[in-house]
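tl;dr need the bound structure. longer version: we got a ligand (heme C) that a collaborator sent over and nobodys looked at where it sits. i said id run it. heres the input, straight from their email, havent touched it
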Amino acid sequence: MRKILIVLALLVITAPSAMAAVGGGEIILKNKGGDVIFSHERHVVGLEQTCQACHPKLFTNIKQHKTVTMKDMKAGASCGACHNGTKAFEVKDNCAKCHIK
Ligand code: HEC
Ligand code: HEC
Ligand code: HEC
């Protein structure tokens, strides 16, 4: 019994780190406006948003990334599908929220 409790305790301690990367983890999108770090965790945990909100319609994977411009995004492409001031903060402003450097 005691052994089982110890094993259970270890599972509880190690589980969160084993699941640390939600979905595709953190994605770095390099571009002329400064690197953008896309966080899967921030887009799923605590939001009523599932993987299907983005996959496979908007995004597939890094290799097949379709590069867009900010103009495209303002017209609703890529991140702009949600970052339009209605579903999430808009791309016409808030540059520093996405472009970290
Ligand atoms: C808000 C949009 C969004 C949501 C929600 C989302 N993803 Fe992603 N996902 C992305 C973006 C952006 C990329 C990078 C690919 C690209 O830019 O085209 C990506 C890439 C991935 C990749 C590929 C990573 C690589 O190395 O190429 C996997 C796997 C993935 N996502 C899984 C998931 C899973 C599982 C969920 C749900 C838990 C999820 N995603 C939810 C936007 C999203
Ligand atoms: C919601 C996040 C987000 C916001 C807000 C945002 N950007 Fe971007 N931006 C991106 C992403 C992601 C890319 C890369 C697109 C790609 O690779 O497909 C990008 C690309 C760019 C580019 C290179 C492409 C182009 O259009 O020439 C520039 C320059 C840029 N952003 C400037 C800005 C400025 C200036 C602002 C504020 C007015 C801004 N961005 C706001 C996410 C954002
Ligand atoms: C399916 C809708 C959707 C798409 C597509 C989407 N986002 Fe978001 N994003 C959200 C929502 C909802 C929030 C949380 C509400 C808010 O901050 O306005 C959010 C929040 C964020 C935040 C703030 C996270 C924090 O730390 O609080 C950043 C940065 C961000 N998104 C960047 C991006 C980038 C970059 C892309 C494109 C690669 C993108 N998002 C695509 C819905 C989306």
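gonna send this back to them w/ a short note. Confidence is low (pLDDT under 50) at residues 10-14.
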